[in-house]
Design a protein that fits this description.
8% of the residues lie in helices and 32% in strands. It has one helix spanning 32-40, and strands at residues 15-17, 20-22, 29-30, 44-45, 51-52, 58-60, 64-65, 72-73, 78-79, 83-84, 91-95, 99-103, 108-110.
Length: 111
C-alpha cells in the first residue's frame, strides 16, 4: 500500500504515525481522508443540487440582507464568473451594485 503525497507541499516522503500521516519536509500532519478529499477536489452544489465550477454564472434565489449595507441583494440577481473557495461562504464573486462578496451556495442556482 502506497501512501498519498502531502496535500500541502506535494512531497512524496510521507510517513505514517498511528492514524496520522506526516510530511517531513513541511511538517504538515493529515489523515488519509484529508488526502482523499484534496485529490477529489472541492465540490460545491447549488440550491437544486447542481455542481458548480469556477467561472459559472449563478442567480440569487431569495433576497439576502447584507451586513453594513443599506439595501439587500434581490432575488433574481445574476452573478457572473464565480470562484469557488473553502469555508461556510463558498462562492467568491462580484455582485452588481454591491461589489466583491462571498455567498453561500445554498442561496443560488446555476444560470
Amino acid at each position: 500500500m502506497s501512501l498519498p503525497k502531502c496535500p500541502k507541499c506535494g512531497s512524496e516522503y510521507v510517513y505514517e504515525d498511528g492514524e496520522l500521516l506526516i510530511c517531513p519536509e513541511c511538517g504538515y500532519e493529515f489523515t488519509k481522508e484529508d488526502a482523499q478529499k484534496k485529490e477529489e477536489g472541492l465540490t460545491v452544489k447549488d440550491a437544486h443540487g447542481n455542481i458548480l465550477q469556477d467561472g459559472d454564472d449563478v442567480i440569487v434565489i431569495k433576497d439576502l440582507k447584507v451586513k453594513g449595507a443599506s439595501g439587500s441583494i434581490k432575488g433574481g440577481t445574476k452573478v457572473k464568473n464565480i470562484r469557488l473557495c473553502e469555508g461556510d461562504h463558498n462562492i467568491d464573486c462580484k455582485v452588481p451594485g454591491f461589489g466583491a462578496m462571498k455567498l453561500k451556495s445554498e442561496f443560488v442556482k446555476k444560470a
